[in-house]
Amino acid sequence: MQGVTNRGLREVFGSTVRPDVLFTEFVRVRPGSATPVSNADFTEATTAVAGIPLVVQVIGSADEGVVQATRDLVSRGVEHINVNMGCPWGRMTSVLAGGGMFRAPETVEPLLRELRQIVPGSLSVKTRSGIDDERQIFDVMSAFEAASIDFLVVHSRTVQQKYTGTANHDLTREIVKRSAIPVIANGDVTTVAQAKQVMEQTGATGLMLGRGAIADPWLFDRIRGLAPDKPDGIARRRELARHLSLLLASYETIFYGDAQILAKLKSVVALIKDPDQRRWCKALKKQQHIVSLRRLLEASMTEDP
Ligand SMILES: Cc1cc2nc3c(=O)[nH]c(=O)nc-3n(C[C@H](O)[C@H](O)[C@H](O)COP(=O)(O)O)c2cc1C
Q: Of 4, 88, 164, 210, which is the most exposed, with the fewest CB atoms less than 10 Å away?
C-alpha cells in the first residue's frame, strides 16, 4: 500500500504477527529514464524481513520501462514481482499504468511473457475487476494464463469505483472458478467473520489483507485462531498503543524529523476505524511532537480496565 507498507512498517509486522507474505508499496517505473527505479525504491525493494517472502510491486505502462525496471530489481536480488493492474488514480490510468492497463489489454500478455523470462521467483498480478465494467477482467484472464503467472490477486471493484461500495466477492468466486491460476481474494476483510465468509464464498487460495490489517495488525493472528477474535475496547487500545509505539520507533530509524515521522504514523492512525477508539485516535492525531505522542502511547499501554 502506497505511503503505508514501507520497510519500517513491514519490519514491525514481520517481528510481531509475521504475515505469510509481505508486499512493498508500488515501485513507480520512471518513464524514459536510464535508471527506471529510484534509489529509494531499490532500498525498499531489497529490505525484506528474514524468513518472509517479499513481493515487490511494480507499476508502469508496458512501454514505459517496466521490463528494464524489473531487470534492474532482479539484478539487485529481488525474487518476486507483482504487476499493479489496479491503481485507480488518474496519474496512473492516464498513461495506461495500474488500472489503466485495462484500456490496452493487448499489451498485458506480451509484457507478462517478457517478465516471466526475467523473474526468478513468483510473478503475479494484482488487479481490479475492470475500468468501468466488472466483466472486463474476463478479457485479460487468458493473458495471465498464457504468460504462466503464479498467482492473481483480485480486488473486485472497478477502477471507476475507487474505494466506494463494497468488493464484489460473488465476482471473485466466478474468477476463481474460471481461473487456471491460484486466486488470492482482496477487499473489505476487516474481521475474522469476513475472512471466513470470503474464503468460503469464493474458494480463493488465500487472502490479501490491506486496510483491515493496517488498522488491526492482530487480524492475521485472529484469523489463524492465535489471538482473541474480539478484544474489549481497553485491551484493543493497549494492543494498538504497543503496535504504534513499535512503529514510531521503526519510523524514527528511516524517516527524518518530527513532521515526516508524525505524518507517517498519523496516516496509519487514520486507517483505524474502530468506533471505540475514535476519541483516542483523535487525540493521537492532535499530537505535534514525537515526545508527547510517545507519552500518550505509553500511558495507553498500561491503561487499566
Ligand atoms: C492508502 C492506500 C494505498 C494503497 N496502495 C496500493 C499499492 O501501492 N498497490 C496496490 O496494489 N494496492 C494499493 N492499495 C489497494 C489495496 O492494496 C487493496 O487492494 C484495497 O485497499 C482493498 O483491500 P482492503 O479492503 O483489504 O484494503 C492501496 C490502498 C490504500 C487505501
A: 164
